Amino acid sequence: MAYTDTSNLYLVFGKQNIRDWADLDNTQNDYSIDARVSWAISLAEEIINAELRTGPYDIPFSVTPAIIQHLTSLRAGLLLYEGRRVATDENQDQTSSQMKSYKVIMRALKAGQFRLDADLLTRDYPFVPEED
Predict the structure, then answer these.
(1) Is residue 122 part of a domain?
(2) How far apart are CA 79 and CA 43, in angstroms?
(3) Residue 127 within a domain
(4) Residue 49 pLDDT
(5) Exposure on the CB side of residue 124, measured as CA atoms within 13 A
(6) What is the DSSP string of the chain?
(7) What is the pLDDT of residue 30?
(8) 51-83 as b/e: b if 16+ CB within 10 A
(9) Number of neighbouring beta carbons within 10 Å of residue 11
(10) How many domains does the chain have?
(11) For position 132, what pLDDT does the model report?
(12) Where does residue 85 rank: exposed (0-12), middle (13-18), buried (19+ CB within 10 A)?
């Protein structure tokens, strides 16, 4: 089960932005656009899993916490943006602030400052949060 879906990307970035960023060849081919959005969601999920694998949670999440859904949506949208960079000053500022938000939340999760409603790992040793 994916942590997010296309509708969540549209909520975060806007439908037109996502479709523009996913259309690398500027062909407006729905199949290609949908495939690229699916790719970005899958890669974003793997990035989230990789970043949180050393933390206290059982990865992958069996039930997706809302904050993980949001982070995956942010990361997927930013992956699409990086590939196309259809930029105006407005959406460049938006994506910059969204990347900062992603990093702040991820740092807090990894440091144990945020607690998710998710299954914790069972360990024979104590968890020590990472420091940046």
Answers:
(1) no
(2) 9
(3) no
(4) 92
(5) 0
(6) --S--HHHHHHHH-HHHHHHHH-TTS---HHHHHHHHHHHHHHHHHHHHHHHTTSSB-SS-SS--HHHHHHHHHHHHHHHHHHH----HHHHHHHHHHHHHHHHHHHHHHHTSS--SSPBPP-SS-------
(7) 96
(8) bbeebbbebebeebbebbbbbbbbbbbbbbbee
(9) 13
(10) 1
(11) 53
(12) exposed
Res 108: pLDDT: 82
Q: Which domain holds residue 28?
A: 6-111
Tokens standing for 39? 């790719």
Domain assignment present for 85: yes
Q: Is 60 left (phi over 0), alpha (psi -120 to 50) or beta?
A: beta
Whether residue 75 lies inside any domain: the answer is yes
CA distances in angstroms from 116 to 14, 21, 46, 98, listed in the order given = 27, 31, 18, 20
Per-residue pLDDT of the chain (132 residues; tens, 9 = 90+): 799 999 999 999 999 999 999 999 999 999 999 999 999 999 999 999 998 887 778 889 889 999 999 999 999 999 999 887 655 556 566 667 777 888 888 888 877 777 787 766 665 555 555 555
